[in-house]
Amino acid sequence: METNTVQDPVQSDQGQDNAIQPEPTSSNIHPQTDPHQPLIKFRESSEEEIQTLRKAVSESNLFQLSIYFLDYLLRSQTVIFEQIYRRQALPRIIASMIVLSAILSAIYGLTMGINHSLLQTISAAIKLPVLFMFTAVICVPSLYTFNVLLGQQFRFLQTVTLMIMTLGTTTILLSSLAPLSFFFAITTQNYYFLMLMHVAIFGLCGVYGVQYLYRGCSYIAYRMGQPLNQTLLRIWILIYAVVGMQLGWRLRPFVGRVGSPFEILRSEQEGNFYLSVWHLLLSLLFGPTT
Prior knowledge:
Largest sheet: none
Radius of gyration: 24 Å
Shape: globular
Distance between the termini: 107 Å
Helix content: 55-70%
Number of helices: 11
Number of domains: 1
Structural class: mainly alpha
């Protein structure tokens, strides 16, 4: 006697649902079907690219790796994000990006003090990397703590790596504008113009850098199957900007006023960054104010 087996349609549907739920990977990101997919579209990275980067990280020294990341930060960001998500060789990535950020920011710093004296040039080249690194040290703990309290699964080293990558991206753009800074430093003696020019350049580079941070956080949050807390990230970016501006104010002068004596740090510390920019703008438009 032949027996017909009738399959439960509910169980069949559940089996199909389970069969089409693969673990998210860097190559199956589809904004139309995934509720956690960020609004940003990422270039798909192949496993070959990921393994190539992994090999470079393991075999190159820190200086070589820093140069290697110059191209990757500009062209293959998704590959780096995937490396951070997988938590592969993060300490070496952090160390190499610190080297890269220090070198590139020092290059721009050399152009800031060149119109004053050799000592001012050297001082600015040293203080600018210090500014970036101290800003990161101050702001990373708050970013990590907020993420943990709000349920994000970012690990501490992942957070640090994203922060250092942000500095790397910022300083790459900053160093690319060093020739422009050098040109105006040797062709004009207008202190107010130079200061406002540097403020504008730092603002532009900072915005570009935090966009990299936003993209990295969006990618890693998606790979973890979590929606990104955008409100938290925007609040933190504001904190990061305020800390950077105020710390830069405390470490001034970077640009020495022609005819004034050399100072490592300004003896007069009253006021703040925002009032200083306002006074610089008024002085540029209407002449020096008291």
